[in-house]
Amino acid sequence: MDYRDRHVIVTGGTGALGTAMVGALLEAGAVCHVPYIDQAEADRFAFRNRAEVKLVPGIDLTQEAAIAKLYGSVPKLWASIHIAGGFAMAPVGETAKSDLMRQIDMNFVTAFLCCRAAVNAMIPTGTGGRIVNVATRPALEWRTGAGMVAYTASKAAVAALTVALAEEVVKAGILVNAIAPSTMDTPANRRTMPKADHAAWAKVEEVAATILFLASPENRVTRGAVVPLYGRT
């Protein structure tokens, strides 16, 4: 897939999936714009010294001003990939309103604001673009969200946002899709679930490869999809 001279924003780009995503984009020739807040994570980021990577510090993706700063810094945006988010597991009886709102902010609000900014940046170019959100398996299979209802609801909102927005902006040449991964094979997940069958989990490189296609110029027809990426789980 040819991303040469195409500018791509990757939120959550310094995390496990984000790093795999940026690596795949760089190999395809893209220029990657990666916002971050955690300086330590940015310092560990494998691609921090690459000329084609533009790290953008101090970006709180729940704040409109920060989003405007990020998207205003990118010339002729082609794709916006929204990996940033958060996870919390707790029974509903132990989930306070503040917990619920934190999940909504981290997962749905960040995706919504970035989608809005991406659309507003892409339409004036006249060349269309691509948007990819990250939902989750419980966003499609609601019963699997028992014990993490706030997280499930926030990600289900991301899935609905994706499908509705895809219909809204298709005539502008913008194709919007999402992925819905199950548990991914990351160091954090291995630490949390040491006895799980790690071989059954989707590898971050495999997940990144799916996003790479959805966000690419080669994807000419797929829109409004929430693609299950379950591995063998």
Describe the structure.
The protein is an alpha/beta fold and 233 residues long. The chain has helices spanning 16-27, 39-44, 64-72, 97-122, 137-140, 149-169, 187-192, 204-214, and strands spanning 7-11, 31-36, 53-57, 77-82, 129-134, 174-181, 184-185, 202-203, 226-229. The chain has one domain: Rossmann fold. The chain has a 7-stranded parallel sheet, with helices on both faces. Strand 1 (7-11), helix 1 and strand 2 form a beta-alpha-beta unit.
Q: What layout of secondary structure does this protein have?
A:
Blueprint: E1 7-11, H1 16-27, E2 31-36, H2 39-44, E3 53-57, H3 64-72, E4 77-82, H4 97-122, E5 129-134, H5 137-140, H6 149-169, E6 174-181, E7 184-185, H7 187-192, E8 202-203, H8 204-214, E9 226-229
Parallel strand pairs: 1-2, 1-4, 2-3, 4-5, 5-6, 6-9, 7-8
Helix pairs in contact: 1-8, 3-4, 4-6
Q: Assign the CATH class.
A: Alpha Beta
Q: In CATH terms, what is the fold-level topology?
A: Rossmann fold
| Strand coverage percent | 15-25%
What is the H level of CATH, i.e. the homologous superfamily? NAD(P)-binding Rossmann-like Domain
Could you give the order of the helices and strands?
EHEHEHEHEHHEEHEHE
Number of separate structural domains: 1
| CATH-level-2 architecture | 3-Layer(aba) Sandwich
Alpha-beta content class:
alpha/beta
Neighbour order of strands in the largest sheet:
3-2-1-4-5-6-9
Task: Write down the Rg.
Answer: 17 Å
Which of globular, elongated, flat, extended, rod-shaped describes the shape? globular
Q: How many beta-strand runs?
A: 9
Number of helices: 8
Mean pLDDT: 96
Relative helix content: 40-55%
- First-residue to last-residue Cα separation: 29 Å
Q: Which stretches are low in confidence, meaning pLDDT under 50 for 5 or more residues running?
A: none
Biggest β-sheet, characterized? 7 strands, parallel
